[in-house]
UniProtKB/TrEMBL annotation:
Positions of the EGF-like domain: 506-543, 903-941
Lineage: Eukaryota, Metazoa, Chordata, Craniata, Vertebrata
SUPFAM superfamilies: Concanavalin A-like lectins/glucanases, Fibrinogen C-terminal domain-like, Galactose-binding domain-like
Family per similarity comment: Belongs to the neurexin family.
Protein name from the UniProt record: Contactin associated protein 2b
Residue ranges of domain Laminin G in the record: 334-504, 738-902, 943-1152
PROSITE patterns according to UniProt: EGF_3, FA58C_1, FA58C_3, FIBRINOGEN_C_2, LAM_G_DOMAIN
Membrane-spanning ranges: 1195-1216
Signal sequence region: 1-41
Length: 1264
């Protein structure tokens, strides 16, 4: 027996030798099979069989017998046809012994209209407990014939081992009958089978007393009807072990390659696979281990994992004991019944009995369903599953429809076998679930039981309010007698409808788990669903990322700085993690913080005098590595070369520090030759009794992040060290802007294959001006994926999976060929296909599970033209498939007709050129043209303003042929023009100011006629707007006389006129509307000049302005002044701008007129400017004028004193820091040009490409 075991129960340990091991402590009845199949498995299995090996449910006639159903045979009637043409027919083939079947081929009945177009296969080893052929976790339906002569062959995805096969017709020719001729292909199969009785153990002695194994390969097959028990176990004296066991009908592999003595390293690892393995069918197991890497395969589903701990060898003892075994296969006595939603089984029982006794076992996924129904002489009894509990309803009609309810158990819809026993006698009823007598529920009933003699199982009675049962039953007992289901099948007792006898076709739709990224799977009989809460993913299978891929993407969506979750690989395996996004600069920065506090004292050390500080981040190494496409910086301090180093990526030691580079082993001061001790290359090596610091930026991103710092020589008497490791900072997102331009209808980019898997997602951005074209096409085997734009407003997705064609289309309400960026997202998973356009427009199509569960490999991916079709013309960027970014720019550079990069960054979801700035396309981004705005800065958000001294004025002249420029959004409106002769009926004046000076002129706009617009501050500091458009004796004035605006606070003014309507927006207060008198003209004729601060012009001018407000002039700040699209103040302050502007007096650039408001917001109820409070008395009085003057003088004196005190404090701080500079910080400088380097090391750093992306001084973080 040992020789046989050595041949078949083998574990491959290494290439040098093979030893065998098989140990099992079993408390169940599994059958373990160790097999071997050699040679080509393509033999014809059905043709050589005798006529008697074929049987069927029925025969249409003498020449239509099952024995004539051989491929290409013409004997008899040329094939098998049953008497009835319905779904209850079957053709059975007895292969004589267990065979391995790999394929089936079918034909229709010879020269007839009888053929089968769809069918299923069942198989069994003993003509009972039939199992349906499953593929991709589903009962598989095969495509059959379309005529009577063509041979259609179907390969089995997984070979089956069986003796008996049943062919089940599902669909057939509507103009004929069921007809078939078939052939089965495969080969002989041999195996040694061992039967365990629950106490048996098999042992084997190794050739050496101890085995220290690096590589294992374990293979076995088993079958059982019991859900718990050990299949294999081996262990060693050092605590190593390997164990394979069933737990709740799932297979658990436990392995331990070793744990440390004190438990600091735990090696125990357990992985579960499969479910419903107590189905009395064969299951194959393969365990492959090489060191800590393990492939655990159950029924062709493989899990890859690494064991815990740090050990690689499996140390096992050399001997285990054995007990009695039998080399035979005991068949199970149970015979299951399979119910679908329309099934019922009717069975007889004892009539007029005084005892009701029914018991059965069931398994299901549905929380509710009818198990049994029977009539009583005075009512009826229902036994069912309600919300996972077994519930009994007894309706007693004799007592005015008294209803009695008892229930027991919970969560019994878990797919496991559960037993139920209902017993009612005399005046009591008892319900027992899973044989637990201690939890039996008892209740009194008001009548004496008298049975009716007919029992319905699964459904069949209309009086029951419960839904039909879907699942399996077995061990059905009525009146304590086991029901003979074979007699039921032969029609000797009872009856049934849509019931499959001797088969349990329950499927665990959550194994394998199609819920990705840790999603929780739950199921009913028909489908499964995924709970994605807390995973960071969404969708039907938790496949699509919930968060954006980078801070750059958040910024482009209009978000502001803050903490965000990012998912750099999208639907890939790396989980999202939390970062801080800084969006205040033109470049977006991503920050990962660590656990080390600034200025952490380095105190504890080992016996060698070295202190080790571990640095951890709020992200794993794998998550950080996904940021390597971004420029990274690190702020750090170091002490004690060569005793001190830091550890970066890949656990490599590095001896360079901030401001230095790889291999130089110097600090920044060593590069710049300004260290405290010229004999050392770092300040901290000077060994002075004073604090010194080396600080700077680590810029070589392939070495980051810092994971450990080792500080040496800390045990020296009097020495002391402090360490600061700043956050990891990464900027930008190159992959988000990775783009290619398609310039020809024949342009295309080709990529190699990518795995489609059961879930595939594709995401990209595009911009085009063409109404038609192909974006993407990928083909592979029987699969095809095609995305195109059609008609300029429709995106069409075509999917072909497993011969099934699915088309989804999304229509956009606005044109897609508008040369703006649009986003396409596609997801195909086992449940549905989804097409999303621009994140808003969406179409979902439920998938046919049988097809979409298939694993596909797309052999070629084409972007643009493919298969002779027209390519889309335009740009594509940020192409991501299954979490992998495709490098469009690199491939475009190698492909004719396609160019890297793309013009079109401006047209996207959220434009960041503010305040009327114009977006200008660049190669790999965009810039904002602020020339026609009153703002500056990268996004036209920086205020441009100036401080006006006494007598200062700014004058902007409109040329006669230029006129007043018009805002883009108002071009084409009546009254606007581009010529100097235009008569304006609309204008907009916007500015902000702050001052203590009153009266004064803020803005004055003149014309070549007597038309004008003036905004002034009156004597009491209130605002007045003066419109003179002709037709009136005096200018139309708007007096805002309820607030002193000359209070030193910043105020914003927006005046917009459209014909007679004038709208005024002042600060944060409600919008006010005024109307010009009917006698006033509505045209502002021939605009000539804009004056700021003071008016200096010849000709007829409003005399009130000159007399009351023009002297001595405005003193204070003006900012963001803009009249239509003219910014006169900006033109005056920007020397590089060519504009007809002049300045008189002293004008100092300042944005003091646009600083944030310090006046708190006021409600309309308390706002004195609000129209409803127009009659109230404003508390400002003229006699406060002198007080204002005093306040102004006091403010000036106080400001001077503050400046003096602040200057003194700054000088003191500088002196103290200079005096104690040995306890201060040394900051490295920015990288300078190589030509200005002071030494060779500095020149290396300057010329190293890894250091070209240095960080501006404003972007650095310094820890002092």
């Amino acid at each position: 027996m040992n020789e046989s075991l050595h041949r078949h129960l083998s574990l491959q340990r290494s290439p040098q030798w093979t030893i065998s091991l098989q140990m099992g402590f079993l408390h169940l009845l599994p059958l373990l099979c160790f097999c071997c199949v050699t040679g080509r498995c393509e033999d014809s299995l059905a043709t050589p069989l005798p006529y008697s090996s074929f049987s069927s449910s029925s025969v249409y006639g003498r020449g239509y017998g099952a024995g004539y159903a051989k491929l290409n045979r013409k004997q008899g009637a040329g094939g098998w046809s049953p008497l009835d043409t319905d779904r209850y027919q079957w053709l059975q083939v007895d292969l004589g012994s267990r065979k391995q079947v790999v394929a089936i081929a079918t034909q229709g009945r010879y020269s007839s209209s009888d053929w089968t177009s769809k069918y299923r296969l069942l198989y069994s080893d003993a003509q009972r407990n039939w199992r349906p052929y499953l593929q991709d976790g589903n009962i598989w339906t095969f495509e059959g014939n379309r005529n009577s002569e063509d041979v259609v062959r179907q390969e089995l995805q997984h070979a089956i081992l069986t003796r008996y096969i049943r062919f089940i017709p599902l669909e057939w020719n509507k103009d004929g009958r069921i007809g078939v001729r078939l052939e089965l292909y495969g080969c002989s199969y041999w195996a040694d089978v061992i039967s365990f009785d629950g106490t048996g153990i098999i042992s084997y002695r190794f050739r050496s007393k101890k085995m220290k194994i690096v590589k294992d390969v374990i293979t076995l097959k088993f079958r059982t009807t019991v859900r718990d028990g050990v299949l294999l176990h081996g262990e060693g004296q050092q605590g190593d072990y390997i164990s394979l066991e069933l737990s709740r009908a799932r297979l658990l592999l436990s392995i331990n390659l070793g744990s440390s003595e004190y438990g600091s390293i735990q090696g125990h690892t357990t992985v579960a696979s499969g479910s419903l393995l107590d189905d009395d069918h064969w299951h194959s197991v393969v365990i492959e281990r090489y060191r800590r890497n393990i492939n655990f395969t159950l029924d062709h589903h493989t899990k890859h994992f690494r064991t815990n701990g740090e050990f690689d060898h499996l140390d096992l003892d050399y001997e285990v004991k054995s007990r009695n075994l039998t080399f035979s296969c005991v068949e199970s006595s149970s015979s299951p019944v399979f119910f679908n939603s329309t099934s019922f089984l009717q069975l007889p029982g004892q009539s007029n009995g005084d005892t009701l006794s029914v018991s059965l076992s069931f398994r299901t996924w549905n929380p509710s369903g009818l198990l049994m129904f029977t009539e009583l002489a005075d009512g009826w009894v229902e036994l069912g599953l309600v919300e996972g509990k077994v519930t009994v309803y007894m309706n007693v009609t004799q007592k005015k429809n008294t209803r009695i309810e008892i229930s027991s158990g919970s969560s019994l819809n878990d797919g496991q076998w559960h037993s139920v026993h209902l017993n009612a006698l005399e005046n009591h009823a008892m319900l027992t679930v899973d044989g637990d007598e201690a939890s039996t529920v008892r209740t009194a009933i008001p009548i004496q039981v008298q049975t009716g003699g007919v029992y319905f199982f699964g459904g069949g009675d209309s009086r029951s309010l419960q839904r039909s049962f879907q699942g399996c039953m077995q061990m059905i007992h009525i009146d304590d007698h086991l029901v003979d289901l074979r007699a039921v099948e032969q029609g000797l007792i009872g009856t049934f409808e849509n019931v499959t006898l001797d088969m349990c076709a329950i499927i665990d739709r959550c194994v394998p788990n199609h819920c990705e990224h840790g999603g929780e799977c739950s199921q009913t009989w028909d489908t499964f669903s995924c709970n994605c809460s807390g995973t960071g993913y969404t969708g039907a299978t938790c496949h699509s990322p919930l968060y954006q891929q980078s801070c750059e993407e958040y910024e482009l969506q209009g978000q502001s700085s803050g903490a965000y979750w990012i998912d750099p690989d999208g639907s890939g395996p790396i989980a999202p993690f939390r970062v801080h996004c800084d969006m205040t600069e033109e470049t977006v920065w991503t920050t990962l913080r660590n656990n080390l506090s600034p200025q952490t004292p380095v105190s504890s050390h080992d016996q060698y005098g070295k202190a080790v500080l571990q640095i951890t981040y709020n992200a794993t190494d794998e998550q950080v590595s996904k940021q390597t496409s971004q420029s990274c910086s690190f702020v750090s301090s170091r002490y004690g070369v060569p005793f001190t180093w830091w550890v970066g990526r890949a656990n490599e030691k590095h001896f360079y520090w901030g401001g230095s580079g790889p291999g130089i082993q110097k600090c920044a001061c060593g590069i710049e030759n300004n260290c405290t001790d010229p004999g050392h290359f770092c300040n901290c090596d000077a060994e002075l009794r004073a604090w010194k610091e080396d600080a700077g930026l680590l810029l070589y991103k392939d070495h980051l992040p810092v994971s450990q710092v080792v500080v040496g020589d800390t045990s020296k008497s009097g020495s002391e060290a402090k360490l600061t490791v700043g956050p990891l900072k990464c900027r930008g997102d190159r992959s988000y802007w990775n783009a290619a331009s398609f310039t020809s209808p024949a342009s295309s980019v080709h990529f190699q294959s990518f795995p489609g898997e059961t879930s595939t997602d594709i995401s990209f951005y595009f911009k085009t001006s063409s109404p038609h074209g192909v974006f993407l096409e990928s083909v592979g085997g029987s699969s095809r994926l095609h995305i195109q734009i059609r008609g300029g407003s429709v995106v069409l997705l075509t999917l072909e999976v497993g011969g099934e064609l699915v088309q989804l289309s999304v229509h956009s309400p606005r044109p897609l060929n508008d040369d703006e960026w649009h986003r396409v997202q596609v997801e195909k998973n086992i449940k549905e296909a989804v097409l999303v356009l621009d994140g808003r427009h969406r179409e979902v199509r439920a998938a046919r599970t049988q097809a979409h569960a298939k694993l596909e490999l797309y052999t070629d991916l084409f972007l643009g033209a493919s298969s002779g079709q027209r390519s889309f013309l335009g740009c594509m960027r940020a192409l991501r498939i299954n979490g992998v970014i495709f490098d469009l720019e690199r491939r475009a550079a190698e492909t004719p007709g396609v160019s890297p990069g793309c013009q079109g960054h401006c047209s996207r979801y959220e434009m960041h050129c503010r305040n009327g700035g114009k977006c200008v396309e660049q190669y790999n981004g965009y810039s904002c043209d602020c020339s026609l705005t009153a703002y500056d800065g990268p996004f036209c958000t920086d205020d441009v303003g100036g401080y006006f001294e006494t007598g200062t004025l700014v004058r902007y002249d409109f040329l006669p042929d230029m006129g007043a420029p018009v805002p883009d959004e108002m071009k084409g409106s009546p009254g606007w023009g581009l010529s100097g002769e235009a008569n304006l009926t609309r204008e907009e004046l916007v500015f902000s100011f702050s001052t203590h000076s009153a009266p004064s002129i803020l803005v004055y706009i003149s014309s070549r006629t007597q038309d004008s617009l003036a905004v002034v501050l009156r004597q009491n500091g209130t605002l007045q707007i003066r419109y003179s458009l002709g037709g009136l004796m005096e200018p139309f004035t708007i007096d805002i006389d309820r607030r002193n605006m000359a209070n030193g606070q910043p105020h914003s003014v927006n005046i917009t006129r459209s014909f007679r309507e004038i709208r005024l927006q002042l600060d944060h207060y409600p919008l006010s509307t005024y109307t010009l008198p009917e006698t006033s003209d509505v045209h502002f004729n021939l605009v000539k000049s804009i004056f700021l601060g003071k008016v200096f012009e010849t000709g007829q001018i409003d005399p009130v302005l000159i007399e009351r407000y023009n002297t001595p002039g405005f003193v204070g700040c003006l900012s963001r002044v803009q009249f239509n699209s003219v910014a006169p103040l900006k033109a005056a302050l920007r020397s590089g701008m060519t504009a007809p502007v002049s300045t008189h007096g002293i004008l100092v650039p300042s944005n003091c007129g646009a600083s944030p408001l310090t006046i708190p917001p006021m409600s309309s109820a308390h706002d004195p400017w609000h129209s409803e409070t127009a009659g109230s008395v404003f508390p400002f009085k003229e006699e406060k004028k002198r007080a204002d003057g005093v306040n102004r003088n006091s403010a000036i004196i106080g400001g001077i004193i503050s400046v003096v005190i602040f200057s003194v404090l700054c000088i003191l701080v500088f002196v103290v820091r200079h005096t104690f500079r040995h306890k201060g910080s040394y900051h490295t400088n920015e990288a300078k040009g190589a030509e200005s380097a002071d030494c060779a090391d500095a020149a290396i750093i300057v010329n190293d490409p890894a250091f070209t992306e240095t960080i501006d001084e404003s972007k650095r973080e310094w820890f002092i």
